[in-house]
Amino acid sequence: VVAHFQPKVLAGKKLLITAGPTYEAIDPVRGITNRSSGKMGFAIARAAAEAGAEVTLVAGPVHLPTPIGVRRIDVHSAREMLDAVMPLAAAHQVFVATAAVADWRPAQTQAHKIKKNAAPGQAQPPQLELAENPDILATVAALPHPPMCVGFAAESQDLIQHAREKRQRKNVPLIVANLGPATFGQDDNAITLVDARGERELSRADKLTLARELVREIAQRLTLYTA
Ligand code: CTP
Ligand code: CA
After folding, report:
1. Phi, psi of 170 (to 5 degrees)
2. 70 DSSP β-pair partners
3. Pocket of ligand 1, candidates 32, 104, 152, 162: which has the most ligand atoms within 8 Å of its Cβ, to mutate?
4. Phi then psi for 109, rounded to 5 degrees?
5. Per-residue pLDDT tens for 179-218?
6. Tell me, what DSSP letter sits at residue 77?
7. Is 202 assigned to a binding site?
8. Is the bond preceding residue 134 a cis peptide, omega within 30 degrees?
9. pLDDT tens per residue, range 120-154
10. Nearest CA, atom 3, ligand 1
11. Is 34 noted as a catalytic residue in this protein?
12. How far is the CA of 202 from the centre of ligand 2 (A)?
């Protein structure tokens, strides 16, 4: 109930953000997905709107209300997410990729439910062939004049090492690293900012507090950023 009135550090800026998991259909009733509640992304969308930004949130399947003042586009698959993001990206000053995008999708989606059609234990399980999904963050970062890109890295081990590698591989100025699955679905989070100069750990806090800190950080960096 404090801090309803945040400094408008992103006034006049447009921020595009992805959040939640993606869902890749195997057949009409089954699919592949990632663990992600979307809470961190939605908190950042809210914090950015509070800070005066015009915010567009591209969300995978989540169970969260849209933050006040935020434009929301719902998608399911990684390819739908890419299709929503790409026409918008160049017109934004900031792109924040918090989505837990499924790295692979079934190479084919079956039009009808795959049936077992045999007594229990008698049939060969179907073999699932996978295809690689597009990397949305890397695709945006490779635009001729990309928005300032902020990536996330949820790792189960070697957090900083992986985050550094990701930052370079995707060619983005800032990666926000957090250790999952301990924080998945929780209301608080522990994050470390990883940039070209090094790392800075933020003290553990609830996701909205961290989101507001991150928004201030983004606003500061934006004043120095040139694509
Ligand atoms: N990301 C994305 N599109 C993908 C995969 C990842 O936009 N197809 C973004 C995520 O939103 C996140 C960052 O890239 O901001 C890192 O995602 P992550 O899954 O941690 O990295 P990957 O490169 O996919 O590597 P891995 O899953 O093997 O750790
Ligand atoms: Ca991944």
Report:
1. -90, -5
2. 55
3. 152
4. -100, 125
5. 877 777 788 888 999 999 999 999 899 999 999 999 999 9
6. S
7. no
8. no
9. 888 889 999 999 999 999 999 999 999 999 999 98
10. 135
11. yes
12. 23
